[in-house]
Amino acid sequence: MKDYEVIIGLEVHAELSTNTKMYCNCSTSFGADPNTHCCPICTGMPGVLPVLNEKVVEYAVKAGLATNCDISRFSKQDRKNYFYPDLPKAYQTSQYDLPLCLGGHLDINVNGEKKRIGITRIHIEEDAGKLIHDAYTGDTLVDMNRCAVPLIEIVSEPDIRNADEAVAYMQTLKSILEYLNVCDCKMQEGSLRCDVNLSVRPVGQKEFGTRTETKNLNSFKAIHNLIEFETNRQIKVIEEGGKIKQETIRWDDAKGIGYAMRAKEDAHDYRYFPEPDLAPIVLSDEYVNNIKDNLPEMPHIKKERYMKEFSLPEYDADILTSSIKSANFFEKANDICNNPKAVANWIMGDFARMLNEKEIEIDESKVTPENLAELINLIDKGTISSKIAKQVFEDMFESGENAKEIVEKKGLVQMSDEGAIKELVEKVVQANPQSIADYKAGKDKAIGFLVGQIMKETKGKANPQIVNKLLLEIINK
Amino acid sequence: MSVSKEDVLHIAKLSKLNLTDEELEMYTKDLSSIVDFANQLSSIDVEGVKPTAHILNIQNVFRKDVMQPSFDREEILKNAPSKDAGCISVPKVVE
Ligand SMILES: [Zn+2]
């Protein structure tokens, strides 16, 4: 078999988190009863006049600047014509030849290596409605709530070479959009989704192979699995002497299989033309510079700052800043307890594991930054041991109670009274002559066993440093 | 003719229209004369004239991002020939 190179370009659709739709004052909020966020403008009634939401331009420009694009000073909107029941106007208002943002790039990290992915363009466009299959009647039901919710489409250059790079690109983009607060990036609700264009070619060949397009992937896992699947499928077809057809693939994530959709030969005849009802968008340098000067601190800058200001390892800084939510949590907690490494360890360790198990994000947890800071303070002051702290944290995660309350209620305060601990140590030493003999014979492991026994007696509450100190004093006497 | 029968059939297909042979003849003729009429513009010398994005001399027509009540669902669905469960009902769409 020859060696193949995989060529991937992503078209990412991000729903903008504006209050209202693109051209009317209807709400954009998710999950309302069908067709209750609709008016004559967003349902395409004849004779209505759309007026562009100013936030759409602002958010798109923010996204453009954060991804190193040039912002067009003159831009316009166009009609993209196609006929489908989710599109009541029978055209999507989009941008064709004069998009808002052009020629940017994003740097991604894959297995410790930096790679630059080009961004061709970012344009604004409206979303389509939702089609629901009615199992009872066999008909299709149309919900137009999502019609004309504003989107940006971010088109990458074909610079991506495998599934890991595609996922890293998507993660980096998601993190940036969240930092900018222009998209809520809830992939399961479809507010961030991507189309994958993929082709393969034998290494050394100059021309691109024929590409296929898979639409609307809405999880990192789906993107990864589709790319692996489609890469293998295309190579197999070519190896067996076949030809790749330019077609649209539908990805069934549950089954892990892609199906070719019926080839529609006219599908790409969109007959774009300038939207006569909407005026051109002309941006001044002042407008663009004002947005540029007020961009929030971006993930890679924040990461550098965390390494400098908090002396955190690169690994920690990378994980903490990969999401604005965990970065905000970290900063709030650290402001109170002033122990950055401890806060980082909690967020990356037990906390992350429990969030994963529950499939929730850090800001949806009952644990507040104040709670975590207080817990760390209790450890730092020696009130509780770090072992007990894990137990307190689990309790806190479930109940949302604060650390002090839990520690007091459950009587978990650490035993630091040397007199009391000494009694216990003597008792344990007397009860385990064999371990003492082992220790004296050079088996250091025996100490661990004895410490374990003492901790068990005190239900983990004895201060381990004091236990160690007293134990050695007594044995070595 | 500046528009062929094939062109008309293609446009009709994109528009989900079925044409009779008579209509095909008629539209081919009518569309050709419309295109011929518009093509007169090509004879004008536009050297040095900037492309126009909009016929009116306007730009930056925006609205504030402030929510207002939407229409009642009954009102929105009033003209739908078929509806079910608060939605417009259409023949099954096969993916
Ligand atoms: Zn509306």
In terms of topology, how is this protein built?
The complex is a heterodimer of chains A (about 475) and B (about 100).
Chain A: E1 4-15, E2 52-53, H1 54-66, E3 70-71, E4 74-75, E5 78-81, E6 91-94, E7 101-110, E8 113-126, E9 130-133, E10 140-143, E11 150-156, H2 163-180, E12 192-202, E13 212-217, H3 220-239, E14 248-252, E15 257-260, E16 273-274, E17 281-282, H4 285-293, H5 299-309, H6 314-321, H7 324-337, H8 340-348, H9 350-358, H10 369-380, H11 386-399, H12 403-409, H13 418-431, H14 433-440, H15 445-457, H16 464-475
Chain B: H1 5-14, H2 21-39, E1 62-63, H3 73-77, E2 83-84, E3 87-90
Antiparallel strand pairs in B: 2-3
Helix pairs in contact in B: 1-2
The structure holds zinc ion (ZN).
Percent of residues in β-strands of chain B: 5-15%
Ligands (ions, cofactors included): zinc ion
Strand order of the largest sheet of chain A: 3-7-8-11-1-12-13-14-15
- Largest two-chain interface: A-B, 52 and 37 residues
Mean pLDDT of chain A: 92
Structure description:
The complex is a heterodimer of chains A (477) and B (95). Chain A is of the alpha+beta class and 477 residues long. Chain A has three domains: 4-287, no CATH class; 297-410, no CATH class; 418-476, Arc Repressor Mutant, subunit A (Orthogonal Bundle), CATH 1.10.10.410. Chain A is 40% helix and 20% strand. In chain A, the strands form four sheets. In chain A, strands 3-7-8-11-1-12-13-14-15 form a nine-stranded mixed sheet. The N and C termini of chain A lie far apart (73 Å). The mean pLDDT of chain A is 92. Chain B contains three helices and three strands; from the N terminus they run H-H-E-H-E-E. Chain B has helices at 5-14, 21-39, 73-77; strands at residues 62-63, 83-84, 87-90. In chain B, helix 1 packs across helix 2 (21-39). Chain B is flat. Chain A binds chain B through residues 18-20, 25-27, 33-40, 43, 51-55, 57, 74, 76, 81, 83-85, 98, 131-134, 137-144, 250, 261, 266, 269, 271, 274, 276, 278-282, and chain B through 10, 13-16, 53-56, 58-68, 70-71, 73, 76-77, 82, 84-93, 95. The site of zinc ion has 7 residues of chain A, from loops.
